[in-house]
């Protein structure tokens, strides 16, 4: 009985083994178009990755942003017509008025002339009256405004040494006291001009 069972198992094993080894009975699996497309995409992705790894050759004066934008420090090659407002018709250098400068005050007048000083006085007085200083406010004059500007410049020089501006009028602290400040105007007057000075119409 055991021998019969062994023969049957042997015959069954040989038949199945021969069928699996046979090339004639083998049927290849069909590859769908979708799978073929996926494979081609994977190959293209690998190619793109390889191309991204390749270092970029950047010319001098050229910069590549993170998003791939290319920037250059050179001027555009395309010629453009210059706007008339950007055309300088006057000769460069010192003007006739600047050649006549002999004092620091003359240089200051090149930036803030008499007409500008008049505007500053007018707008400062109007703003002080608008703020309710009718009873205590004394109109500033061009001479006083120019003196005020000079004190500001001088205070800036002294303040560079860490000296408090308002202490330059002090009669108690002689370390910071500057007689020129007291001789020019009082500390209260200086503080009021600082509070109300205007360079344009405050209503606009």
From TrEMBL:
Biased composition (Acidic residues): 18-51
Organism listed in the record: Trichinella papuae
Protein name as annotated: PiggyBac transposable element-derived protein domain-containing protein
Domain of life: Eukaryota
Signal peptide span: none
Region (Disordered): 14-52
Record domain PiggyBac transposable element-derived protein: where: 104-203
InterPro entries: PGBD
């Amino acid at each position: 009985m055991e021998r019969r069972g062994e023969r049957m198992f042997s015959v069954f094993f040989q038949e199945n083994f021969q069928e699996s080894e046979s090339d004639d009975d083998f049927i290849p699996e069909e590859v769908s178009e979708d799978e073929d497309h996926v494979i081609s995409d994977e190959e293209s992705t690998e190619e793109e990755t390889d191309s991204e790894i390749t270092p970029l050759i950047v010319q001098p004066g050229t910069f590549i942003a993170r998003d791939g934008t290319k920037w250059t420090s050179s001027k555009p090659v395309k010629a453009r017509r210059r706007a008339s407002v950007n055309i300088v018709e006057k000769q460069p250098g010192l003007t006739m008025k600047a050649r006549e400068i002999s004092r620091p005050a003359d240089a200051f007048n090149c930036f803030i002339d008499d007409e500008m000083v008049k505007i500053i006085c007018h707008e400062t007085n109007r703003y002080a009256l608008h703020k309710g200083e009718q009873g205590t406010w004394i109109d500033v004059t061009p001479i006083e405004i120019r003196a005020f500007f000079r004190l500001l410049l001088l205070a800036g020089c002294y303040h560079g040494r860490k000296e408090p501006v308002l202490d330059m009028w002090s009669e108690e602290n002689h370390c910071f006291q500057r007689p020129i400040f007291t001789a020019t105007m009082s500390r209260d007057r200086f503080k009021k001009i600082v509070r109300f000075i205007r360079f344009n119409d405050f209503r606009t």
